[in-house]
Amino acid sequence: MRRHWQRRWPICVRMRPFRANLKPYSTPRMMTTTDSYKEQKRMIEITLTLKQQEAVDYDGKEMLIKGIAGSGKTLVLLNKANKILAAQERENVYLFTYNGTLAAYAKELAAMIGSDRLHVYTFHSWASRMLAKLNIRMQMVKGDEQEELLRNSVMSVCQTAPHRLVAEEKYFDFLAEEISWIKGKSLFTLESYLQAERTGRGTKVNVDQKGREVIFAVFQQYQGDLKRLGQADFDDLAAILDRSFAQLGPLKDLDNVLIDEAQDLQEIQLKLLRKCANKRMIIAADKGQKIYNTSFTWRDIGINITGGRTKVLHDSFRSTKQIIELAYSLQKHDPIYKDRDEEFVHPVVPQREGPVPRLIQCGGYDEEEEYVLRSVQELYRLNPNWKIGILCRKNASLSKFQKRLPPLGVPAEYVKKMSGSAFRPGVKLLSFHSAKGLEFDAVFLYRLREKVIPIYDQAEDLDEDTLSTERRLLYVAITRAKSVLVMTYYGRRSRFIDELDPALYRYEGVGR
Ligand SMILES: Nc1ncnc2c1ncn2[C@@H]1O[C@H](COP(=O)(O)OP(=O)(O)OP(=O)(O)O)[C@@H](O)[C@H]1O
Question: Is residue 73 annotated as involved in ligand binding?
Answer without folding.
Answer: yes
